[in-house]
Structure formats: C-alpha cells, structure tokens
UniProtKB/TrEMBL annotation:
Belongs to the N-acetylmuramoyl-L-alanine amidase 3 family. It comes from the Bacteria. It catalyses: Hydrolyzes the link between N-acetylmuramoyl residues and L-amino acid residues in certain cell-wall glycopeptides. One of its GO terms (cellular component) is outer membrane-bounded periplasmic space. GO terms for biological process: cell wall organization; peptidoglycan catabolic process. It holds the Pfam family Amidase_3. The keyword GTP-binding does not apply. InterPro entries: AMIN_dom, LysM, LysM_dom_sf, MurNAc-LAA_cat, N-acetylmuramoyl_amidase_3. Keywords: Cell wall biogenesis/degradation, Hydrolase. Its EC number is 3.5.1.28. One of its GO terms (molecular function) is N-acetylmuramoyl-L-alanine amidase activity. This is N-acetylmuramoyl-L-alanine amidase. It comes from Pseudoalteromonas luteoviolacea S4054.
Length: 455
C-alpha cells in the first residue's frame, strides 16, 4: 500500500518581506540573507515520501528537488536507520506513513548535524538487511533516494534443497513486471504496465493452479517493487522448474503492436556463467543440483564443465519453451516477433531455471492497450500461456513430478521427421522409441502415431 506525504509550505516569504520592508534598511538586508539561505537549504529539499510494503521487504522513497547529497548510519537497541540530507531545509510530515508496515514503525526527524541539513530517523521493528541508493530522474519521477529493508533470511536457509520428491508438482514462477514506484511503460490512454502485468499474472496463476500436477508461484502479489536480482532467487527458493516474466511492450510510435517472447542473450548468459565460475563459493547455489559439486570440487575443469552443461540445458530449454509459447499466443493475438528474441535481461539470469519474458502486446498502441486492460483478453493470454506450459512439460516432464509418473505421451509423425529428430526432440533414445512401438527398423510414415517412452 502506498502513502504519500507532501511537503508543507516552507516559508511565507511575501508576509516576511512586507514586515521587514516597513522596518529599516537593516531589516531589508536581513531579508536577503534569509531568502538566500533558504534557497541554499532547499537545493536538496525533500518534496515527498512514499512507502511500499512487500511480503519480504519494505521500500521507502524520498523524492528530492535535486541530486541526493546524503549520509547514513544504523543504530541498535532500538534498531534505527539515520539519514542526513545535506543542504535541506524542507518541512515534510511523516504522519500515517507507516501505519500498515511492520518493518518501519515510525519515521521522524531528529536534531540535525548542522543547520544546513535535515536528519530523518526510521525506527525499525527488527534487524534487516539495509540497502540505500540514489536514483536519477526517469519518466514521471525526479531525483530519489531509496531505502530498502529486506528480511534477514540466510541464503542457505532460504534456498530449499532441490532433492527430488516423488510425485511433486511442476512449479512455475510467474513474475508480474514492474510494480510499486516503478509503473513500467505508460499506455497511449494512460494505463500503467504494472497493473496490466499483475492482472495477467494472477489469471495465469489461477489457470495453472487448476491443473493437476502444477503449481504457480507469484513473485509479486501486489503493487510493490521486487528488485531484479531477487526475482530468480525467489523462483529458486520455491524450487521453480520454469520462470515466466510478464510484461507489456512500448515504443515512441503508437504503430507497433503484437506479442513477443524474449530469452536471455548468449552474451549475457556467458557473462553470468563467468560470474558463477569466478565466484563459485558464493554463486554455486545458482546452479541447482550441480551447485554443491561445483562449490566443493578441487577440479577447476570439472567445475567449468558442470556449470557449462547447466547453462546450455537452461538456454536450450528456455528457447524451446519460448517457441511453444509463441505457437499458442498466435492463436489469441497478433505476434510482433514470430521467433524468440535474445536480449540481455536481469530477470532471466538464473543459470538453472529455464526463463522467458513474454511481452503480451504494446501498451503504447491504442488497440493493444485496450485489449491488455480487458479481462476477457487477459484470460485468453493466460489460457494460451498455460497451454504452452502444459505442452512443454508433457514433452519434458521433470523427474520426480506427478506428470512424469502419470503422463502418457504420443507423437504424430510429420513430413520431414525421422526417428533421430523425434528422439532428440523428446530427449530419449532411438532404441527406446523402437522398443515402445515394436519397430524393427527406423522406417516411419507421415501420420503414424508413436508412443514416446518416459525418460
């Protein structure tokens, strides 16, 4: 929930000016000094304060008149975060700002370190991981100072073991793009991308949760912001088998329209791979089952080979699912790109989870924007993506899942296909297909229905 507190009137300069002007030349000089000082102090004036609560974090945003000039420190017993805004003379009310947040109990001012600064104190409910950083102007926002408080859950506790459970659900992490003080793109008629993506994500989750053997996990459930690097980590904590990030595209022209599906670019994938190898003690958790081996092995070559195999599997799987998603989306909407597009995207950096970003349409296009805000069209998109998920996991069921134990898969032979191509598609051997179908040779016919054995 968002609470916005606007600054009060700093000085009634006109009234002061009239009184001083009537007094003396000395008073007039004093007036000039007062105005000059107020202008200096206002260089870093706090114009408003906003607070966003999320399930595992809280974000406080200070909107500033100019580039933040600040320092901060934390205190214990009780827990507090103290921020000094230099050259700030604004008056901001913090009343009711934190009434629905348990991490920030109170925001107040305190005695500043000097007359030209403003000291703000956040009284905290517990010990949190604190992140404080400035943001440059963008879109409707000016200069900002952001304070993030994250629940302190150790990575080893938060990241659940990926041991195989018999008949577990296939888990799909769904990321609704943007949120909180990041509205995303703003549509031709003024709608916000963050609202559209959350609506589609919730409908997708509802569709998927209605399917036996599948479980959807919403990374964002409300109007708040989740840092990009947190999204794949949260997916991993929930043992996700697939990550889907929902977005709406935009362009400076209102003409482009249609949906696209994006995958991680080869350059970014290789860059993330290099990070894992260089910091394998810290980053091995990003590689699922192979992580512990990579972390503990003394053989550098083995570590590189295992990490590379994990990356290649994830990259290939992401592309296969992206193609499946496009096949289903084209049944309900126009496509902007007919093949998966590779881009460098922070949300798709998981080395062990196939991940895609789906641009559901152009919010900058009037027709697309109208459709994206339509519950009926949102449901069509959700159903199409759900069908893509079902098709993909019916072909490639993860080991230990209910679908891998119960699925019976068949394939109708198409023109140009051979046993070798079909075996590669389903990641089984030619020998196993021949055995399952009582084939003596590799000869198959167009239209022939083959039983695909379980892996």
């Amino acid at each position: 929930m968002q609470y916005v507190c606007y600054k009060g009137q700093a000085l009634k300069v006109g009234l002061v000016y009239k009184k001083l002007l009537a007094s003396s030349v000395l008073a007039t000089t004093l007036l000039l000094v007062t105005i000059s000082s107020a202008q200096v102090y206002a260089n870093n004036a706090i114009e408003s304060v906003r607070l966003w609560s999320a399930p595992t974090s809280t974000r406080v945003v200070f909107d500033l008149k100019d580039k933040p000039d600040y320092s901060f420190f934390s205190l214990r017993s009780p827990n507090r975060l103290v921020i000094d805004f230099n050259d700030s003379g604004s008056q901001v009310s913090f009343k009711n700002l934190t009434k629905s947040d348990h991490r920030v109990k109170k925001v107040r001012t305190s005695t500043p370190k000097n007359k030209a600064s403003k000291r703000v104190v956040l009284e905290l409910g517990d010990t949190y991981k604190l992140v404080v950083f400035p943001l440059a102007p963008t879109g409707q926002y000016g200069h900002r100072l952001v304070v993030e408080l994250h629940d302190t859950v150790q990575a080893k506790q938060a990241i659940k073991s990926k041991t195989v459970d018999d008949n577990r659900d296939v888990v799909v992490a769904i990321v609704a793009g943007h949120g909180g003080d990041d509205p995303g793109s703003i549509g031709y008629a003024g709608s916000y991308e963050k609202h559209v993506t959350l609506a589609i994500a919730k409908k997708l989750a509802a569709q998927l949760n209605a399917k036996s053997g599948f479980k959807a996990v919403l990374i964002r459930t409300g109007d708040y912001f989740v840092r990009h690097e947190r999204k794949p980590r949260m997916a991993r904590e929930n043992r996700a088998d697939l990550l889907i990030s929902i977005h709406a595209d935009a362009f400076t022209s209102s003409k482009p329209n249609g949906a696209s599906v994006l995958v991680q670019s080869a350059r970014r994938a290789n860059s993330e791979f290099t990070k894992v190898i260089a910091n394998r003690e810290r980053e091995s958790q990003l590689l699922g089952g192979a992580g512990e081996i990579i972390k503990n092995t003394q053989d550098d070559n083995l570590a590189v080979i295992l990490a590379d195999m994990t990356k290649e599997f994830t990259t290939q799987s992401s592309y296969v699912f992206a193609s499946e998603a496009l096949s289903e989306l084209k049944k309900v909407t126009k496509l902007h790109k007919t093949k998966p597009v590779g881009l460098s995207l922070a949300v798709l950096t998981a080395q062990d989870i196939p991940s895609v970003l789906i641009e559901t349409g152009f919010i900058s296009n009037p027709k697309d924007e109208k459709n994206l805000n339509s519950p009926t069209h949102q449901k069509k998109l959700a159903v199409a993506i759900t069908n893509a998920i079902l098709n993909y996991f019916n072909q490639y069921p993860p080991k230990g899942t209910l679908i891998s134990a119960t699925s019976s898969l068949t394939h109708r032979v198409k023109r140009g296909e051979s046993l070798s191509i079909i075996a590669q598609k389903y990641r089984v051997t030619i020998k196993s297909i021949k055995k399952a179908n009582n084939l003596r040779t590799n000869a198959i016919k167009i239209g022939q229905v083959l039983t695909i054995p379980k892996r």
